[in-house]
What we know:
- InterPro entries: CheY-like_superfamily, OmpR/PhoB-type_DNA-bd, Sig_transdc_resp-reg_receiver, WalR-like, WH-like_DNA-bd_sf.
- Keywords: DNA-binding, Phosphoprotein, Transcription, Transcription regulation, Two-component regulatory system.
- It comes from Anoxybacillus andreesenii.
- By secondary structure, the protein is of the alpha/beta class.
- The chain folds into two domains: 2-123, Response regulator (Rossmann fold); 129-223, Orthogonal Bundle (Arc Repressor Mutant, subunit A), CATH 1.10.10.10.
- The chain is built from eight helices and twelve strands.
- The strands form three sheets. A five-stranded parallel sheet has the order 2-1-3-4-5, sandwiched between helices. It has a four-stranded antiparallel sheet with strand order 6-7-8-9, covered by helices on one side. Strands 10-12-11 form a three-stranded antiparallel sheet.
- β6 and β7 (135-138) form a beta hairpin.
Amino acid sequence: MYKVLIIEDDHKLRTLMGQYLTKWNFQPVLVEDFEHIDHIAEKESPHIILLDINLPVQDGFYWCSKLRQLSDVPIIFISSRSQSMDIVIAMNMGGDDYIQKPFSLEVLVAKMNAVLRRSSSIQNLDKELLTAGELTLNLQNSFVECQSKKASLTKNEFQILYLLMKKSGQIISRDEIMRSLWEDEQFIDDNTLTVNVNRLRKKLEEIGAGDAITTKKRQGYLLQ
Length: 224
């Protein structure tokens, strides 16, 4: 049974989500204290977090950033905000997915299961190192290393780099990367992939590998 932390200030919606997820064999933890969300998450150790943006005290972007300092637990944003920039900020802060209100509870469960499958597949990778050029990817702890400098990757960043390194020297299409990340392309906003690739490039640049990923116009990406 997966434990899910529901951080939603609308009491009616929070309760409805909790009741529905219980039927799908999730163990919901309903957050009502919006001043100490990080402490609650650390105490409960959830397998996945559902996070609203418009919250009392501090917004969901703030809390996502705080939670990312504690854990790489999957985080799905749930919000009535529909601007592309809100989605971009959510993914930049470390979110794994974004659901816009109003939403179908069936779609919520499908997205949660997809995110948990991705998380599980990463955790179950053989404990070894993958090397391509000057890059070394630790498959156990999601660190990438170049010339003795290291950077920690989120699950999405890890999955993108893992795919590019496994097929180093080959052009990988955006569609293939999205299938690898989310398994079902109908749930994907194309901007989300761009945000994750740009975030990965920034981390590679910080360790001296800023030119590792090349964009091939209308084709995809190539790790050189």
